[in-house]
Amino acid sequence: MVWTIIVALIVGCIVGPLARLILPGKQNISVPMTVVLGAVGALVGSWLGATLFGGESGDPWSWSGFILGTVVAIVAVLIYGAITGRRDTAGRIG
């Protein structure tokens, strides 16, 4: 269980910034927030993967958890970027 969390955090810290690089345009997300979103998304995704698809107990690695964690981390960065949006100097979203 502990290794699963550690692996998910490491993967999330890598996937969060990669998701930001993949997104088109300029995002108004700081690098630390991107890393945090990636880590949290990877943790949630790996937990969902283990819950939905099972896995051998004590095994820190599962492909379903890794893939789902990666997808959730990318989606978390996308959602945060969409919520915060781009604002101009007048405060209008645009």
Kindly describe this structure.
It is found in: Cell membrane. This is Putative membrane protein YeaQ/YmgE (Transglycosylase-associated protein family). It comes from Ornithinimicrobium humiphilum. Keywords: Cell membrane, Membrane, Transmembrane, Transmembrane helix. It is a multi-pass membrane protein. The protein is about 70% helix and about 0% strand. It has 3 helices and no strands. The protein has helices spanning about 1-20, 30-55, 65-85. With about 90 residues, it is an all-alpha fold. It has one domain.
Helix and strand arrangement:
Layout: H1 2-22, H2 31-53, H3 63-84
Subcellular location: Cell membrane
Pfam families: Transgly_assoc
Membrane topology: Multi-pass membrane protein
Radius of gyration: 15 Å
Domain unit count: 1
Order of helices and strands: HHH
Poorly predicted spans = none
Task: Kindly report the average pLDDT value.
Answer: 74
Percent of residues in beta strands?
A: under 5%
Helix content: over 70%
**Oligomeric assembly:** single chain
Q: Quick one: how many beta strands? A: 0
Number of helices: 3
Query: Based on helices, strands and strand pairing, what is the structural class?
Result: mainly alpha
Largest sheet: none
- What's the overall geometry? elongated
Distance between the termini: 43 Å
